[in-house]
Amino acid sequence: MSETMEYKGYNGSVLYSAEDRILHGRIVGIRDAIAYEGSNVASLERNFKAAVDEYLNFCKEEGKTPDTPFKGSFNVRLGRDLHKRAALYAEEHDQKLNAVVHDALEKYLSRAG
Predict the structure, then answer these.
(1) pLDDT in tens, 54-113
(2) What are the residues facing 23 on neighbouring strands?
């Protein structure tokens, strides 16, 4: 089961508000805040796609480069001790710290998914 939708390389969350009795979401993985809603699954999907299209058209009209989701780099705050342990592990295994973090995430997520 997926909790996101995808369209033109953008992912959108799927959430339900019991209080408002409405489906809603936002485009994830970009800095710009883009939200949408729908009263049922079909309208949520339609409004998500329309939100992506409107965002891309707006960026084009403004001469702005649209945010690209999941560029492949992000900052991780580990805490001093974990940072030290990871860096020493990388050094001892003749690896870069990025490779150690990449491999650790791959292993963790393959077990979780």
Answers:
(1) 999 999 999 999 998 887 888 889 899 999 999 999 999 999 998 999 999 999 999 876
(2) 16, 38
Residue type, 35: A
Tokens found for residue 77: 């705050």
Q: Is 44 in contact with 59 (CB distance < 8 Å)?
A: no
The Cα 103–Cα 90 span in angstroms is 11
Any idea where the domains of the chain sit in the sequence? 4-62, 80-112
Q: What are the C-alpha distances in Å from 66 to residues 11, 34, 61, 70?
A: 14, 12, 11, 13
**Nearest one of 99, 27, 35, 32 to 62, comparing CA atoms:** 32
Write down the pTM of the prediction.
0.70
